[in-house]
C-alpha cells in the first residue's frame, strides 16, 4: 500500500526519483544490524577508522542488497542510522539523509565478489606508505596471513586521470577498484587508504585491524634490516587456522565498544 502511494505521488509529480528508488528486501536480522553498529565503533577503537571510513554488510535476506550507515562519523552510528542499498548503490530509503560519497566501493565489490559478505573502507595510517612507495605490503606474521603474499595497489590515476580528488565517487571507479582487488582480501588505494573484504562482520573487522598491524610491524622490521616474510604456503595454512578464531577477539572488541557510556 505504502509503495503504491509513493509510486502514485511520483507519477503525479512527474518525478522519476520515486520510481528509481529500489524496493526493500525486508527487515534484516536485528543481530546483523547490531553487529554492524558494533563494527563501526570497534573499528574506531582499534584505530582503523576515525571520523572517516565506512563498513558495510550484505543483507541477510537478499544478496543484491547491502546495509551501511548514513554519512556520519562511525563512532556515533546507532541502529537507526543503518540504511539499505542496492548494488547500484541507491538507498532504498535514505530518509532525506546524506549517504556516503564513496558507497560505490561497496556495491561494486559485492557485485564482483559473490563470496564477499562485508567490506571495510578505511584510511588507516600505517598502510598509507605502502600505497605510495615502491615497497609492497607483504605478510609479516601469522595474524595477517589472510593477506596472502602480496597486496595489490589501486592507482586511481590510471583510470581517473591526473587531476582526480582520489575518491571513488562513481560506479566506474568502484568497478575499477574491484578489478584490482580481484580475489584478494585487501587492496591498497594509492594516496588514499585501503579496502578490506570478508565473509562476515567479525572476519572483516579482524582483517582490517591486522592489515593495519602488519603495515606497522613491517615498517618497523624494515628499519632493522632484511625481513623474512611468510611463504604462500605458510600464509594459506595460518589463514585457515585463524578463520576459526575470529570470534575470540570479536566478542572482546564488541563488548568493550558497546559498553554504556
Ligand atoms: Zn576514502
How would you describe the overall organization of this protein?
The chain is α+β, with helices and mostly antiparallel strands. The protein has one domain: Class II aldolase/adducin N-terminal domain (L-fuculose-1-phosphate Aldolase, 3-Layer(aba) Sandwich), CATH 3.40.225.10. It is 41% helix and 12% strand. It is built from ten helices and seven strands. It has helices at 2-13, 17-20, 30-45, 104-112, 128-132, 157-160, 171-181, 201-224, 232-243, 247-257; strands at residues 54-58, 65-69, 82-86, 118-122, 153-154, 186-189, 193-198. The protein has a seven-stranded mixed sheet, sandwiched between helices. Strand 1 (54-58) and strand 2 form a beta hairpin. Helix 4 (104-112) packs across helix 7.
Amino acid at each position: 500500500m505504502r509503495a503504491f502511494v509513493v509510486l502514485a505521488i511520483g507519477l503525479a509529480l512527474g518525478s522519476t526519483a520515486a520510481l528509481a528508488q529500489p524496493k526493500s528486501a525486508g527487515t534484516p536480522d536485528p543481530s546483523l544490524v547490531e553487529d554492524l553498529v558494533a563494527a563501526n565503533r570497534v573499528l574506531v577503537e582499534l584505530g582503523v577508522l576515525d571520523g572517516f571510513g565506512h563498513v558495510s554488510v550484505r543483507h541477510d535476506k537478499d544478496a543484491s542488497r547491502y546495509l551501511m550507515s548514513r554519512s556520519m562519523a562511525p563512532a556515533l552510528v546507532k541502529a537507526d542510522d543503518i540504511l539499505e542499498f542496492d548494488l547500484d548503490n541507491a538507498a532504498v530509503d535514505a530518509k532525506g539523509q546524506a549517504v556516503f560519497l564513496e558507497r560505490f566501493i561497496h556495491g561494486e565489490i559485492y557485485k564482483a565478489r559473490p563470496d564477499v559478505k562485508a567490506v571495510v573502507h578505511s584510511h588507516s595510517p600505517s598502510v598509507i606508505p605502502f600505497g605510495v612507495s615502491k615497497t609492497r605490503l607483504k605478510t609479516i606474521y601469522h595474524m595477517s596471513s589472510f593477506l596472502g603474499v602480496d597486496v595489490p595497489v589501486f592507482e586511481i590515476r590510471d583510470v581517473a586521470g591526473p587531476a582526480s580528488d582520489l575518491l571513488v565517487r562513481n560506479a566506474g571507479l568502484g568497478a575499477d577498484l574491484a578489478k584490482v582487488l580481484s580475489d584478494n582480501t585487501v587492496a591498497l588505494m594509492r594516496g588514499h587508504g585501503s579496502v578490506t573484504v570478508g565473509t562476515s562482520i567479525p572476519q572483516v573487522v579482524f582483517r582490517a585491524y591486522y592489515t593495519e598491524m602488519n603495515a606497522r610491524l613491517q615498517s618497523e622490521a624494515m628499519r632493522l634490516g632484511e625481513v623474512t616474510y611468510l611463504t604462500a604456503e605458510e600464509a594459506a595454512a595460518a589463514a585457515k587456522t585463524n578463520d576459526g578464531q575470529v570470534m575470540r577477539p570479536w566478542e572482546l572488541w564488541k563488548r568493550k565498544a558497546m559498553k554504556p557510556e
